[in-house]
Amino acid sequence: MTEPFKFSLYHMVAVPKSGDTAFVPLTKLIESLQPDVRARWERLYMVSDRRLKLIHPLIYSHPVTKKPTLCFHLGMTDAFAWDAGTDKERITEWPETKHILTEIHQEIEKNNRELVYSHKWEQGDFIISDNLAVGHEATPETQLPVSQVGLRILHRTTVKGTEKPSKS
């Protein structure tokens, strides 16, 4: 997609015995990075579709707050581009892409107690999040069989984005 969703809305209809949703403030995550890691990430661009050449800076300015934020999707990142738009541009192959995604996930996990809010759902809960400033991920327990954890019914919708991520 050329413009990431602005907001995500979640409504829990049926709650399983386990399976949270983890939320992480992306600006704080960036600010917690070691300088060498941040410098590398500043050179990266997320490629969500090679055929359509959909490419966005991994670190970009939030369109409202102007604070640094991340543009990535753990499940929909096709590749990364190093130094996009320069003569040094290079698209990653899958092993390197997987390594970068793992590095991002590890940075989130490393600061889990300080950064990550893990929401334990109750029936009827309703959450609205700024999708451009807050990352989210279902915890692994959400993938367990219904026979083990019970039925999970979560309605989620998004609000269309209006701005393409940019460095400025």
Automatic annotation (TrEMBL):
<dbReference type="GO" id="GO:0046872">
    <property type="term" value="F:metal ion binding"/>
</dbReference>
<dbReference type="InterPro" id="IPR051178">
    <property type="entry name" value="TfdA_dioxygenase"/>
</dbReference>
<keyword id="KW-0560">Oxidoreductase</keyword>
<keyword id="KW-0479">Metal-binding</keyword>
<comment type="similarity">
    <text>Belongs to the TfdA dioxygenase family.</text>
</comment>
<dbReference type="InterPro" id="IPR042098">
    <property type="entry name" value="TauD-like_sf"/>
</dbReference>
<keyword id="KW-0223">Dioxygenase</keyword>
<feature type="domain" description="TauD/TfdA-like">
    <location>
        <begin position="6"/>
        <end position="141"/>
    </location>
</feature>
<keyword id="KW-0408">Iron</keyword>
<dbReference type="GO" id="GO:0051213">
    <property type="term" value="F:dioxygenase activity"/>
</dbReference>
<dbReference type="InterPro" id="IPR003819">
    <property type="entry name" value="TauD/TfdA-like"/>
</dbReference>
<dbReference type="Pfam" id="PF02668">
    <property type="entry name" value="TauD"/>
</dbReference>
<protein>
    <recommendedName>
        <fullName>TauD/TfdA-like domain-containing protein</fullName>
    </recommendedName>
</protein>
